[in-house]
């Protein structure tokens, strides 16, 4: 089934909403809960396709994962066993990569698979450190389906080749079951949700500063985790980015996002909005011991172009498509560097974002890992190819809220991988996102 949608300008957006639970934290809570002895309760879990796939994979290893009510789940860990069937991770890079690490640590044999997009994404970045740890795998050209061969991993010293929290977390999760210590050097820091959550499950880990803002993580091997009590999942800053972006480009808007996680490795988009001149206020509302949380209010103000250097990219890596849309409405030329990783996300997001903007009348230049956008008053009217990528779909729909002519997308279904309530929530703020047609069956 293909669902095409149209987004058109209707006036200012107003209101206060809570974004859904954070996707990164949701995956980790399920996986750590599945490894721990006893029952963990997770509240505010993101009930989106990517996370639900991880829930069923964790079940596939023998843990009990049960939905108790909206967003409220229990996970009772088990000694992991080798699943008879391949585990299907759907569209989720985080799910596949973190689960590979966890499975390697538990010594199980397992095959992971995913949808067409995930089958195209690089997995060698996980298989290489796992091989160093002594875990053999079978994969054609480093892509899914991947078969891991069970065995006892050994701790390694590993320097992250890129600032990827998925690689870092996979090595940490494998290290939990390893013989000996695992040491990870992280020259450029990236999101640290695994490190923050581990102690709640009795996990031991020390973090030392490395010169230049980096870190060295030391994780003892052979750890037995214990249930994490209640793990609250804060609001997802990457989802909050869409209504905030809409308020930033639609004149007269005032929108509040409640309970948004403000982990310093995830706030790059909010900092970029402020640097462009958006009137964004942040009121901390708690959560300091695990993940910080705040209410964010954005009042429309005219925007100016910015330059974001490569070292900042990990702090807003998933937000670049929507940031590029915002830049299209800012006076001047914006430039974003260090975007090579965008080429291996759910789609080639650098190419898909450039095409999205061009289809709506924006002048854009790209290189292998950068983009330049000439901002102004884009006319819109474009038909956007989403390449089955949720973030491209939501970015295009937000653009249509501010352009003279409506923006259409070829498929809204993938939005369900990270933000199932997106369309209703945006329309509740005053947007006009409407289905165009449904083809096939
Ligand atoms: O660890 C995580 O939860 C994530 C890490 C990032 O990927 P990389 O590790 O590939 O940078 C991000 O793009 C992804 O959406 C979620
Ligand atoms: C890149 C993303 O997710 P994943 O890597 O988990 O597929 C994303 O949600 O933008």
From TrEMBL:
It catalyses: 3-phosphoshikimate + phosphoenolpyruvate = 5-O-(1-carboxyvinyl)-3-phosphoshikimate + phosphate. It comes from Parvularcula bermudensis (strain ATCC BAA-594 / HTCC2503 / KCTC 12087). HAMAP family: EPSP_synth. The active site is at 318 (proton acceptor). GO terms for biological process: amino acid biosynthetic process; aromatic amino acid family biosynthetic process; chorismate biosynthetic process. Residues 10-424 form the Enolpyruvate transferase domain. Monomer. This is 3-phosphoshikimate 1-carboxyvinyltransferase. Its main location: cytoplasm. CDD domains: EPSP_synthase (cd01556). Pathway: Metabolic intermediate biosynthesis; chorismate biosynthesis; chorismate from D-erythrose 4-phosphate and phosphoenolpyruvate: step 6/7. Gene3D superfamilies: Enolpyruvate transferase domain. It is an enzyme of class 2 (transferase). It is found in: Cytoplasm. Belongs to the EPSP synthase family. InterPro entries: Enolpyruvate_Tfrase_dom, Enolpyruvate_Tfrase_sf, EPSP_synthase, EPSP_synthase_CS, RNA3'P_cycl/enolpyr_Trfase_a/b. Phosphoenolpyruvate binds at residues 23, 93, 121, 166, 349, 391. Pfam families: EPSP_synthase. Keywords: Amino-acid biosynthesis, Aromatic amino acid biosynthesis, Cytoplasm, Transferase. PANTHER family: AROM/DEHYDROQUINATE SYNTHASE, PENTAFUNCTIONAL AROM POLYPEPTIDE.
């Amino acid at each position: 089934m293909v669902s095409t949608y149209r987004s058109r300008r209707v006036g200012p957006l107003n209101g206060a909403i809570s974004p859904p639970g954070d996707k990164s934290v949701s995956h980790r809570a399920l996986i750590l809960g599945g490894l721990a002895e006893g029952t963990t309760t997770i509240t505010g879990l993101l009930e989106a396709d990517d996370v639900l796939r991880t829930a069923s994979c964790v079940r596939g290893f023998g843990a009990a994962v049960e939905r108790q009510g909206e967003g409220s789940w229990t996970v009772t860990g088990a000694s992991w066993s080798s699943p008879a069937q391949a585990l299907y991770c759907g569209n989720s890079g985080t799910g596949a990569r973190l689960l590979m690490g966890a499975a390697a640590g538990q010594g199980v044999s397992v095959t992971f698979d995913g949808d067409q997009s995930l089958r195209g994404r690089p997995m060698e970045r996980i298989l290489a450190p796992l091989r160093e740890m002594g875990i053999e795998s079978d994969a054609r050209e480093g892509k899914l389906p991947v078969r891991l061969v069970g065995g006892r991993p050994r701790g390694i010293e590993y320097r992250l080749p890129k600032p990827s929290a998925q690689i870092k977390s996979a090595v940490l999760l494998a290290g939990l079951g390893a013989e000996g210590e695992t040491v990870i050097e992280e020259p450029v820091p990236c999101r640290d949700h695994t490190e923050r959550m581990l102690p709640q499950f009795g996990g031991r880990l020390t973090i030392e500063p490395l010169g230049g803002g980096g870190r060295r993580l030391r994780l003892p091997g052979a750890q037995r985790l214990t249930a994490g009590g209640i793990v609250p999942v804060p609001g997802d800053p990457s989802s909050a980015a869409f209504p905030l972006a809409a308020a930033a480009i639609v004149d007269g808007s005032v929108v509040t996002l409640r309970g948004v996680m403000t982990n310093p490795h995830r706030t790059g988009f909010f900092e970029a909005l402020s640097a462009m001149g958006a009137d964004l206020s942040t009121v901390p509302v708690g959560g300091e011991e695990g993940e910080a949380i705040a209410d964010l209010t954005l009042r429309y103000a005219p925007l100016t172009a910015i330059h974001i250097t490569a070292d900042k990219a990990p702090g807003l890596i998933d937000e670049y498509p929507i940031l590029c849309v915002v830049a299209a409405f800012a006076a001047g030329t914006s430039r974003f560097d260090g975007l090579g990783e965008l080429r291996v996300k759910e789609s080639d997001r650098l190419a898909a974002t450039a095409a999205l903007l061009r289809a709506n009348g924006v002048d854009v230049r790209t290189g292998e890992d950068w983009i330049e956008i000439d901002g102004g008053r884009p006319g819109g009217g474009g038909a956007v190819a989403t390449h089955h990528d949720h973030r491209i779909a939501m970015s295009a729909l937000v653009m249509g809220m501010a352009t003279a002519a409506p923006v259409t997308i070829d498929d809204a279904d993938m939005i369900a991988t990270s933000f199932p309530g997106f369309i209703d929530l945006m329309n509740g703020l005053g947007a006009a996102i409407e289905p165009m047609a449904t083809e096939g069956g």
